[in-house]
Amino acid sequence: MAYQQSPMAAGMEPPEAQTIKSMLHIARILAIVLGVIVLLGGLAYAAWIAYLSSVCSTYIGFDPYCGAAITAALLPAIYLVLWGIVAIVVYMQMKSIESKVNSHQYESAKSQTLIWMILGFIFGIILGVILLIAYLKFDPLITWQRNQGGMPPAYGMPPAAASAPAPMAAGQKFCSSCGAANAAGTAFCSKCGAALAA
Hints:
two-stranded antiparallel sheet
């Protein structure tokens, strides 16, 4: 029976691995774009709050209400700066996860994805959803890898030893009783002694 060439034998990857890598690419692009925008926005907002603080202390003098309002307004700026830093770190971590997928270290890549998926949900829903999709795609790959006992050379193909019989040497005779191979010109089986066909 002839089998079609498997995706991995043809230089391709399992479809789940391709999906994971696509999700990681999307997460990287989204993380760097949002990270830079939010980080710069948070720094600009913090600078504006600092300016208001200087105006408050210069023109009004020491006012506890003004100081408390400035402090409260500074909390969103701190959150935005943290969000931007986390998004940039997520961008850097996606390359590390992708290299583990390329080297078929699926369990380690899944564990690393879980950490950044949780942070993605805390600091931005979109990043968390994209990494959740990638995280769920690891399960079929890990199951398949465990069933194969490691990393086989061909994804989805049956084992070569089970699918192909041993080649027959020129002039060999096979015993019809036990199946043993015998040298050419032998009248009786060397294993069971049964008569061999001429």
